[in-house]
Write a structure and sequence with these properties.
Layout (H helix, E strand, L loop, with lengths): L1 E5 L17 H12 L4 E5 H4 L3 H11 L3 E5 L5 H14 L4 E5 L1 H5 L1 H5 L6 E3 L4 H12 L3 H4 L5 E5 L2 E4 L36 E4 L2 E2 L10 H5 L4 E2 L2 H15 L3 E4 L8 H14 L4 E6 L6 H9 L2 E9 L3 H6 L6 H13 L3 E8 L6 H14 L3 E6 L7 H9 L2 E3 L5 E3 L6 H16 L2 H9 L4 H10 L9
Parallel strand pairs: 1-2, 1-3, 3-4, 4-5, 8-11, 11-12, 12-13, 13-14, 14-15
Antiparallel strand pairs: 5-6, 6-7, 9-10, 16-17
C-alpha cells in the first residue's frame, strides 16, 4: 500500500491559510498509481492539520511500504518534520518527496536521513516506476529512473525528468480517495455550486522573471485533448454533481484552436456548467472570447502584474497596458467578468511605480482584483538576482521579499492594505460587491494575506 499526503500548513502567519482546494497534483499521482495496480490512500493534512502523533498513528495503522509527500518551499520545514515522524513510526517505510521544492532543490531534501527519494517534475510516471523498482527489490534500477533523485555511496544522484508528451495517457485524478464533502466546493468567481478545479495543461513557453514553473513542467506547453477534457468534465458532473469548474492552468488559451474545439464540444453537449480560467491578455481575441462565453465561461483571471510599462519590461512580461485595456473591454462586450492580480515590491520597482498599478487597476475596472506582495521563489530569475544584489528580506529558509531604500516587507504590507481599501471601497466596487455578497469574505481574506496565487500549494 502507498500513502500520499500533504503536510500541515506552515506555522508562520506570513502565508495564507484560508480556503483549501483539493490537491489536484497529488490526486493525479494517486490515479496513476492505482492504474498501475497499487492500493493507494491519501491524507490531505494541509486541510486536516493533524498533529504529528496522529500522522504517526495513521502510518502505523495503514502500514504503507511507501509514503509520498508533496512539498513546497513554504512547507519545507513541515515536510522534514512529517518525514521524521513517518520514519519513527515505521523505520522501513520508503519516504518519497515530490512537488515544487523537490523539483527545484532536491539536494536540500535528500541531505536529511529521513527522506529517501525526491521526484523532479511530473510525478505520475516517475513515482510509478520507482514503486515498481522498489517492489521488486531493485534499488539499483530505482537510481536510474528519469525524474528521480536518490542517495548513492558517491553522493546524491539526480536524474533529469522526462516530460509526458501524450498527456491523455494520464488517468483522471483520484478524487474518490479524498473526502470532498470536507472541502468548500465553491469558487469565489462563480455562482454555480458545487464547483471543482481541473488542470488540463502543463509547461510554459514564456519567460517571466518571477515565475519558476518552467523547471517543474518544462518550457513546452502540453495539454489534454479537448475530448479528454470533456470526458473529465462529464465524469465530475456524473459522479460529484459538479456545476462549476475552475481551470487553474496559467495559460488556458495558449493553444487557441484546441480551446475553440473544447468550447464547441461544450456547446454541442449542452453542459449545465459555468467555468472560470486563467490566461494572459495577449492570448485571447474577440472570436475566441465569443466562443468561450457561449460555452459557459463566466470569468477570466489575468495576471496583469503592473500598470507600469517599465516594470513589465523589467520582469519580462512582454505585455503592455494598452493590450490589457483592449482585452478587458472585449471581455465586457461578451459578458465575461474579469479578475486580475498585480504584484507590488518587484525588484527595481519604486513606490511611484506601485501607485501606477493602483491607478491602472481603477482604470481597467476589473470585477475582482488582488494586490500581491512579490515573493521570490527558488530557481526563478528574480530570485537569483535578489541573492546577488542582497536587496531582500528573508521570509523563511528559502523565500525572499524585495527590500531597498524605499521599502521593506512590512512597508509593502502597509501599501497592500491601503491599495485594497482604495480599490475595493470605491463606490463602483461597492456596488459590484453588493451583487456578489456571498463571495466577498473569501476574496477579501486572500487579498489581505497577499500570497502568490497558486494551485493549492505554497
Amino acid at each position: 500500500m502507498i500513502l500520499l499526503m500533504t503536510t500541515a500548513p506552515p506555522e508562520k502567519d506570513t502565508w495564507y491559510h484560508g480556503k483549501r482546494l483539493p490537491p489536484i497534483g497529488l490526486m493525479y499521482v494517486a490515479g496513476a498509481l492505482e492504474k498501475a495496480g497499487y492500493e493507494v490512500q491519501m491524507l490531505d493534512n494541509y486541510l486536516a492539520n493533524k498533529p504529528l502523533e496522529e500522522v504517526k498513528q495513521t502510518v502505523m495503522q495503514t502500514k504503507p511500504f511507501m509514503v509520498g509527500i508533496t512539498c513546497g518551499s513554504a512547507t519545507f520545514a513541515r515536510c522534514l518534520q512529517t518525514a521524521q515522524a513517518i520514519k519513527e513510526a515505521t523505520p522501513d517505510c520508503v519516504v518519497v518527496v515530490g512537488g515544487w521544492h523537490a523539483s527545484y532543490l532536491p539536494q536540500t531534501l535528500l541531505e536529511h536521513a529521513q527522506i529517501d527519494y525526491a521526484i523532479l517534475g511530473e510525478g505520475e510516471r516517475a513515482i510509478t516506476q520507482l514503486a515498481n523498482a522498489l517492489s521488486n527489490g531493485d534499488k539499483a534500477q530505482a537510481s536510474t529512473i528519469p525524474g528521480v533523485a536518490s542517495k548513492t555511496p558517491n553522493g546524491i544522484n539526480i536524474n533529469p525528468p522526462q516530460f509526458i508528451e501524450d498527456m491523455d495517457e494520464i488517468p483522471y485524478p483520484a478524487r474518490h480517495l479524498l473526502p470532498l464533502e470536507q472541502y468548500d466546493r465553491t469558487i469565489e468567481f462563480l455562482e454555480a455550486k458545487p464547483a471543482d478545479v481541473m488542470s488540463i495543461s502543463r509547461g510554459c513557453v514564456f519567460s517571466c522573471g518571477f515565475c519558476e514553473t518552467r523547471k517543474l513542467w518544462g518550457n513546452i506547453s502540453r495539454s489534454f485533448s479537448p475530448k479528454r477534457v470533456l470526458g473529465e468534465i462529464q465524469d465530475l458532473q456524473n459522479r460529484y454533481g459538479t456545476k462549476g469548474i475552475y481551470f487553474i492552468n496559467d495559460n488556458f488559451t495558449l493553444h487557441k484552436e484546441k480551446t475553440k474545439e473544447l468550447c464547441q464540444l461544450m456547446i454541442k453537449e449542452k453542459l449545465d456548467l459555468e467555468w472560470v480560467c486563467d490566461t494572459r491578455t495577449d492570448l485571447v481575441d474577440e472570436e475566441l472570447l465569443e466562443q468561450m462565453s457561449k460555452a459557459g465561461c463566466k470569468v477570466i483571471w489575468f495576471g496583469v502584474e503592473s500598470g507600469s510599462p517599465k516594470v513589465l519590461n523589467r520582469i519580462g512580461r512582454n505585455t503592455t497596458p494598452k493590450q490589457v485595456q483592449t482585452t478587458f473591454k472585449l471581455c465586457k462586450k461578451h459578458h465575461i467578468k474579469t479578475a486580475c492580480s498585480f504584484m507590488i515590491g518587484l525588484p527595481d520597482e519604486t513606490l511611484a511605480d506601485m501607485e501606477q498599478s493602483l491607478k491602472f487597476a481603477k482604470k481597467i475596472d476589473p470585477d475582482y482584483c488582488q494586490f500581491n506582495i512579490f515573493i521570490a521563489y527558488p530557481e526563478s530569475k528574480l530570485y537569483k538576482e535578489l541573492l546577488q544584489t542582497n536587496q531582500y528580506t528573508q521570509l523563511d529558509e528559502y523565500l525572499l521579499s524585495t527590500k531597498n531604500s524605499e521599502y521593506d516587507f512590512e512597508t509593502l504590507k502597509t501599501v497592500q492594505r491601503r491599495f485594497f481599501k482604495s480599490f475595493h471601497m470605491a463606490p463602483k466596487q461597492i456596488l459590484k460587491r453588493a451583487k456578489r455578497e456571498g463571495m466577498l469574505n473569501f476574496a477579501k481574506t486572500r487579498l489581505l494575506h497577499g500570497t502568490k496565487k497558486t494551485n493549492g500549494t505554497a
